[in-house]
Amino acid sequence: RPLPEEAKKWSECFTTLMTSKYGSSLYRAFLLREYSNENLEFWLAVEYYRNTKPKKMAAKAQQIYKDFVAVQAPKEVNLDAETRLVTLTNIQSGNPDEHVFDRAQRRIQHMMERDSYLRFLQSGLFLEL
Questions:
Q1: What's the rounded Cα separation, in Å, for the pair 49 and 61?
Q2: Which residues form the RGS domain (predicted)?
Q3: Smallest Cα–Cα separation from 120: which of 29, 22, 1?
Q4: Domains of the chain with CATH codes
Q5: Taking all residues of the chain, what is their mean pLDDT, rounded to a whole number?
């Protein structure tokens, strides 16, 4: 368990929460309870994608798109049509880089910061710390 001081820092910034192994695990547990973990799964998949070897980026980008971004994807995240199109265009560019999902990830992070992150900070899981 983290010290209360560390947990308090999580409430100051979403990124601080996500850089903490315990904090991100607790947030994930909270989202699983709410059946709304696809946004976090997408956000994490993009973080892992950025560390993918360049030769494997195209295939990995396609998979993330199919899993999360495409309309009717198994874990579809809530993105506007323009962001979906920009992301697809980036992927189809022939040589996707670590920035392919930047716009989509920013939108999802902003959504989490305004909604589920705030609910997490008011939840018993967090307040007990």
A1: 7
A2: 13-129
A3: 29
A4: 4-34+115-128 (1.10.196.10), 37-113 (1.10.167.10)
A5: 95
